Each structure stands twice: as structure tokens, then as C-alpha cells.
Amino acid sequence: MTKCELAVSVWPTEPWTRDGFDSVRSMQDDAIVVEGLEKSYGSVRALAGVDFAVRTGSVLGLLGPNGAGKTTVVRILATLLKPDAGTARVAGLDAVRDAARLRARIGLAGQYAAVDENLTGFENLEMVGRLYHMGRAEARQRADELLDRFELTDAAKRPAKTYSGGMRRRLDLAAALVVRPPVLFLDEPTTGLDPRSRLGMWETIERRAAAGTTVLLTTQYLDEADRLADRIVVIDHGAVIAEGTSDELKDRVGGERLEVTLADISQSGIAVEALAAITAGEPPICPENVLSMPMRRDRGGIAEAVRRLDDADVDIEDIAIRRPTLDDVFIALTGRSAEQEEETETREEVAA
Amino acid sequence: MSALALTVSDTLVLARRNLKRIPRQPDLLIAYTVQPVMFVLLFVYVFGGAIQTPGFDYVDFLMPGIICQSIAFGGFVTALGLSEDVQKGLIDRFRSLPMSRAAVLTGRTFSDIVLNCLSLVVLFTVGFIAGFNFQDATVGEIALGIFLLLLLGYAFSWIFALVGLYSSSPETANAIGFTLIFPLTFASSMFVPADSMPDGLRQFAEANPFTTITDALRSLWLDTPPHSDIWMAFVWCIALIAIFAPLAVARYRRVSAR
Questions:
Q1: What are the pLDDT digits (tens) for B37-89?
Q2: Superfamily of domain A23-251
Q3: How far apart are CA A213 and CA A193, in angstroms?
Q4: b/e per residue, A71-98, with b = 16+ CB within 10 A?
Q5: Which top CATH class is A257-322?
Q6: Would you call A45 exposed, middle or buried from its count of C-beta atoms within 10 A (0-12, 13-18, 19+)?
Q7: Taking CA atoms, what residue in B is nearest to A107?
Q8: CA-to-CA distance for A312 and A298, rounded, in angstroms?
Q9: For helices B58-72 and B26-41, what crossing angle results, to 10°?
Q10: pLDDT class of A113 with cuts at 50, 70, 90
Q11: How much is the pTM?
């Protein structure tokens, strides 16, 4: 499945649109409140004043390219790092001053799949339970429960180093859920997973969210934020550059677009001319053999476009209406693609 | 539960975790059993004939030194384990849990004591087979020597804890341990008498705490007059713990993955 198809197919309803979300925000309603967060590592400014809030029981997607500051935000919220300035409140507790008490109320899982490879799945979960100061019997019972729920019972007695990438992530997530924390931080939960494991992880996260857990997840995958997050905060270079529901962000790039794949690239001029009259915004563009333009249903939509192209004798290979993806949003906001950024950074790392 | 009881409980949970991995990692098991045996055999039978130790059989001279070296490096597994925990992100998990801030390190150093006891059994066994004997040593003196060794091992566990927390990978920890600290053990009276060394090195060896501790062991076990008093050996160990344990705990609070 391509990213585009996936983005469309998982977007059937909008149950998360809440009236007046921003206007009736209060401390009780928000499980996470971040204000003016700043953090520098030496001369590198990782966070340059980040503000956002996450409503209790909702899923917030923190979206941005590598190095945008996502992980730094999570590390501060999970009490692993102290901010230089600003405040972070999680589950009603200050992430710096009440760090010790806060740790009993949060779960952290991430891209590292932090499990002890030499311990079995059961031993890993039992150890985490004991470190949350559960009694031995309780920790063991909880470990069995979680192994069962994460479909790891068969592998419970095997060292985690024999697990597949997907199994490790599930174990890592299970470890984060040992005490049923009201707030869950997931740092790039599916980075490096194969598509099937990724889908499984998504379903698991969705079940947690449905059970009322407040989830903050970071991701550089736009389809992931699209599918899982009620609201999305886009950060880049340590600052929030956009915030809203997936739909709100997409509306900022101008809604739906018509895309026509031409059979003959030499006909692009004729095609652009034929469709110019029914554009909903700027004129059609056709850089390669794919013509693209904003589109509104009330202008006759796809049928009208096909009729006009037919009248102009343009051969078309494919015609489709495409909802904008979050990648389009990212490009519109920053002038570059999220994936491009990543490649640039990799090259810089290699050069260094 | 009080804070102290929680620290003890967390320490034991993590010490258990560290010990469980030993039989599952054959390379570690080999490090604790085969390696000390090989060192004893190499020194006694390969170098032993060429090294002059007036008044002693070489095996008697050597064993306190080689046991001292093995026990000091027993804590190296802590450097490897911690650097691996940092690299793999487990440290982040531990730091996000409502557990004692010191337990990850006290758990490590505590399990090292257990492993060092295992090492001692192996070393004494191979030493006796190679011909080592206590000379005019009371049970109390033998026990005090073993206590000194375990204290030395505990001090080095903290040094290696700090090494592990500053290393970005087990390979780095390995490099620091075996290129910086390991040679220090040779510039001492562990394997050859310091008197036989050239000027400069001899003075260094005489000031080296490894010399102080090895000589204290020889004094306890072989009834030799020590170069410095036995209590200095204990002072060295306690001083090392007093310096490196707080440094390691402070580093742990700030350490992060990557």
C-alpha cells in the first residue's frame, strides 16, 4: 500500500473533533501541559520555547523530522532531562520538582526497545514490576497478564535476544504498561519495524488510547500521526510550527487535489489548458506527466474533468482525487519534505 | 517502606538481573573462570622460571599479585554492562521508573562481589594445584586478606561503573579498561619485585596502590614484612570508594542514551 492510499483509507470518520477544545482548556482536562520549554546542548538549541497541551485521554502526535526536538520533549516529560527554561506538568505533577512522584504515573517506551536481552520476556516484566515496588506475586501475575495480552506467552521463557524486532517492541511497550500508567510516552514506537509489525503496534496503541490512557507519541511518519493522533503538533528546529487535528492541518494546504496521470507527456500543455477553467484555486501544474490542481466537488468534480480532457483528445492513464497527506502539510509549512530532511542529516553525519 | 529499604530492595532486584545473565553469556563465564586460570598457568610456568624472587617460590610470590589483579578487574563486567545499558536505552527505562537513584549502580557493584567470590574460589583452586601455600598465616590473617581483596574489588567496581557510564559502547569501555588501567597493574610488585625495576618506574611502582595492596596480602599470607603498613591498603580501598562512588552516582543522574 502506498502512503497516499493508506492515508485515505484510514481516514473514514472524525470522532475526535471537539467543540471549543482550545477555549475550555483547564489543568484538570489536560494530562500534559508544556509551557515555554527550552533546552540547549552546548551551542545547539534543541528546544527554543515549546508550548502545547494534551487533553486527558487523548492521543497527541508530536511530528517532525529527525533532530527537530521530539525526543528532547519526551525526555523532559519523562523526567530524564531537566529543561533550561519553561515548565512541564504531567498528570498534575511538575516534571522537575515532583519528578520522583511523577515516575510512578508514567510509562515510557521507545525506538530503542529497551529490554534486557539476556533476560526472558517474563523476567523483564517481572523485574520492571518489582522496580515499581510491586510484591513478587503481584509482579509475576502482572507479567503473565501482559505477556498474554501482547501475544508473547509462547516466547515468555526465551531470552529477549531471540525475539524479532516486532516482539521486542511489544515487550518494551508491555514494560511501559506494567503499572497501568495514566500517561504513556512513546518515542518513535514503530521506527525500523516491518509493515506488519507496525500495523500490530498501531492496533495496540489504539487499544490503550481507547482504554483512556493519555498518549504522547513522537513520529517522523506522517501516516502514523494521521492514523493514531487526535491532535498533531508539528515541530521543527525546536519550535512548534503548527498544531491542530489532522484535518485542520490538511485544510491549511488547501483541501483536495485532482491528479491526472497523462499517457503522453507531450500533451501536458493541452491538458493544463483544458482544466484551467475548473480549478478551485491556482491554475493546474504539470511538472512531469502528472497534472495536479486544487479541486472542489461543486464544479462537477472528476466527471467534468474527464469530459474536458476527452474533448481535448488527451489520453489519460489514471485520474484520482487525492486528499493532502501530512507530508504535503510539512512541505507547505517548511518548504521541504520530512523525509528529505532526514536524508540531509544522514549525509551530514557521514561527512562528520 | 523507608527509602533505605527501597534502595536495598531495588539493589537486590537488579543484582539478581546481573547474575542471571552470567550463565547465559558464555564469554562472561569464560572471563570469570578460564581467564584467571590461564594467567596463573602463564606466569607460573612461562615467566616463572625467568623471574627472580629471592626467598620465595615464584608461585607463592605470584598468587597474591595475580589474585589481586583478577579481583580488581572482576568489576570490569560492570563497565561493560553499564555501557551496554546506556547504549541500548535500558538506562532510560530505569531512570523513568520510581526506583532508587543509586540502585542501578549498587545492584551492579553488589553482584560484582558475588562474582568475585566465585573468582576467588577458582583462583585459590588453581593456585593450590600449581603449588601455592600459605606460610605462617592464621585463619584470621587469611580471612583479613580475603576481606581486603573483596574491598579492593568493590572499589574497582565503582571505578568501572564510572568508566561504563562515560563510555558510548562496550568497545570504548574495553579500550579504557585495558589500555589505561590494566598496564597500571604491571607497574607494581604484583608480578615482579619492584626492586628489579629501573629508576623512575621503581618509584612509581612503590607508590602504586596495587603494590601496597599486594604487599599487604603477602604480609598476611606469607609472613613477609610489608613495605608499608597493612592498614594503608585498607585506606586506599576506602579512599577509592569514597571518591568514585559519588562520582558514578552523579554521572548516572545525568547520563542519557546516545
A1: 888 888 888 888 788 777 788 889 899 999 999 999 888 888 988 988 888 88
A2: P-loop containing nucleotide triphosphate hydrolases (3.40.50.300)
A3: 23
A4: bbbbbbbbbbbebeebebbbbbbebbeb
A5: alpha beta
A6: middle
A7: B96
A8: 22
A9: 160
A10: low
A11: 0.79
pLDDT digit string, tens, across residues B102-125:
899 999 999 999 999 989 999 999
Q: Show the cell assigned to B95.
A: 531512570
Q: Bin A204: left if φ > 0, else alpha if -120 < ψ < 50, else beta.
A: alpha
Chain A from 96 to 125: CB within 8 A of any B CB: 100-101, 103-104, 106, 108, 110, 112-119, 123
pLDDT at B17 over 90: yes
Place of cell 567470590: B117
What residues of B are in contact with residue A122 (Cβ under 8 Å)? none
Domain ranges in chain B are: 3-254
Which three three-digit cell numbers place residue A38? 527550552
Cα separation of B115 and B211, whole Å? Answer: 24
Tally A–B CB contacts below 8 A.
72
- Are B98 and A103 in contact by the 8 Å Cβ rule? The answer is yes
Gap from A63 CA to chain B (nearest CA, Å): 21
pLDDT of residue A340: 53
CB A183 within 8 A of CB A90: yes
Q: Which of B13, B93, B103 sits opposite A175 (nearest CB)?
A: B93
Contacts of B88 in chain A (CB under 8 A): 112, 114, 117
Cα(A150)–Cα(A164) distance, rounded to whole angstroms?
A: 14
Query: Is the Cβ of A308 closer than 8 Å to some Cβ of chain B?
Result: no
Residue identified by cell 548516572 is: B252
| Topology alike, domains A23-251 and A257-322 | no
For residue A158, the Cα-to-chain-centroid distance in whole angstroms is 32
* Domain map (residue ranges) of chain A: 23-251, 257-322
Q: CA dihedral defined by B11, B12, B13, B14, rounded to 10 degrees?
A: 50
Report the SS3 class of residue A66.
coil
Instruction: Give the CA radius of gyration of chain B.
Output: 19
Q: What is the mean pLDDT of residues B215-228?
A: 84
Element (H, E) at A291: strand A290-294
Question: What is the residue-wise DSSP string for A69-110?
Answer: SHHHHHHHHTTSS--SEEEEEETTEETTTTHHHHGGGEEEEE
Task: Give the 3-state secondary structure of residue A113.
Answer: coil
